[in-house]
Design brief:
The protein is an alpha/beta fold and 344 residues long. Helix content is 35%, strand content 15%. The protein has 13 helices and twelve strands. An eight-stranded parallel sheet has the order 3-2-1-8-7-6-5-4. The chain has a two-stranded antiparallel ribbon with strand order 9-10. It has a two-stranded antiparallel sheet with strand order 11-12. Helix 10 packs parallel to helix 11. The longest helix is centred in the last third of the chain and has 18 residues. The N and C termini lie far apart (74 Å).
């Protein structure tokens, strides 16, 4: 099934494994099955090595000065975080066994070639790689759907990236709003930007969410997100570079449940009483006799009122009812009908 077909059936929820395997393929396999049990539709890897991302260098340009990874050297951080390429095919098979889709984020052409060899069905572009136009063109040239995160990107940069991807004939592109901070704060999500991207580029949109909790994800779905991506771990106590901003299985499951409830609440355009409301329609207001009225007596504001429940004439008829004459005796508490009254 193509990506666009998948997102038609509901929000597509991606569990991003990233470095949460902590260097253990057994942890990686456990993550896949835990993600399935937690309601994910897909598990995603990142395909790189330290040497495909950077160089082994200790000068100031390669040191991280602050944030989650403050004090780390880029090369050594990626050594800790990367997923060995010889795991990929085995993890893809494990995902299939679990009933999950499987894909990855390539960070250079060799990663794309490798992922083509193992048969991934679509690709992810990371926010930091959005400006690597040659890489984007190479990914798009494979003729597969592309999901692209847009963290930090200006509108002009997104436009250039989209043009590059479309220029290679890519027919299925989704853009994800992303705050590229780890963890991200809710105040900087700016989810209206996600809606604006959908309008400008005419593509499905979603959220790559690095915040803690599920408020951002659920809000994004309410605003039209078709894809939610969230980092997933077995336990934040398992030390690795991504654990601190990843969801554990219980949290992820709650997020997915909240998303599914939000989808139901969004529903469809519908006017009139719902099935649940139908039984309560009787408690709307209508015209009732509130005093005993004898035959021939005039109806007035004193003996006829608009009250609950709704068994009598609709309130809009109240003005024309007043001043008419009772054609029969009417007891207090009787819903008024036109057959009971007339003009003399």
């Amino acid at each position: 099934m193509k990506l666009y077909e998948k997102i038609k059936t509901g929000t597509y929820v991606i569990a991003e494994m990233s470095a949460n395997h902590a260097g253990s393929i057994e942890y990686a396999k456990e993550i896949i099955h835990a993600a399935k049990d937690s309601g994910a539709d897909c598990v995603k890897l990142q395909t790189y090595t330290p040497d495909t991302l950077t160089i082994d260098c200790d000068n100031k340009y390669f040191q991280i000065s602050g944030g989650t990874w403050g004090g780390e050297n880029l090369y050594r951080l990626y050594q800790k975080a990367y997923t060995p390429w010889n795991w990929h095919a085995e993890l893809k098979a494990e995902a299939k066994k679990a009933g999950l889709d499987f894909f990855s984020t390539p960070f250079d052409k060799t990663a794309v070639d490798f992922l083509e060899e193992i048969g991934v069905e679509f690709y992810k572009i990371a926010s930091f790689e959005l400006v690597d136009i040659p890489l984007l063109e190479y990914v798009a040239s494979k003729g597969k759907p592309v999901i692209m995160s847009t963290g930090m990107a200006s509108l002009a940069e997104i436009d250039e990236a989209v043009r590059a991807i479309r220029g290679q004939g890519c027919r299925e592109l989704c853009l994800l709003r992303c705050a590229s901070a780890y963890p991200a704060i809710t105040d900087e999500m700016n989810l209206k930007t996600m809606q604006n991207m959908a309008e400008i580029f005419g593509v499905p949109v979603g959220l790559s969410d690095h915040s803690m909790g599920s408020v951002g994800a659920v809000t994004a779905v309410a605003l039209g997100a078709k894809i939610i991506e969230k980092h997933f771990c077995l336990d934040r106590a398992i030390e690795n570079p991504d654990a601190s901003f990843s969801m554990n299985p219980a949290e992820f499951k709650q997020m997915v449940n909240d998303i599914r409830q939000a989808e139901k609440a969004i529903g469809r355009i519908s006017y009139g009483a719902t099935e649940q409301e139908a039984s309560n329609a009787v408690f709307r207001r209508s015209v009732f006799c509130v005093k005993d009225i004898g035959k021939g007596e005039t109806l007035t504001e004193d003996n006829v009122r608009v009250i609950r429940p709704g068994y009598g004439l609709a309130p809009k008829f109240y003005p024309q009812v007043l001043g008419q004459t009772a054609l029969c005796d009417i007891k207090r508490g009787t819903p008024l009908t036109f057959e009971m009254i007339g003009r003399t």
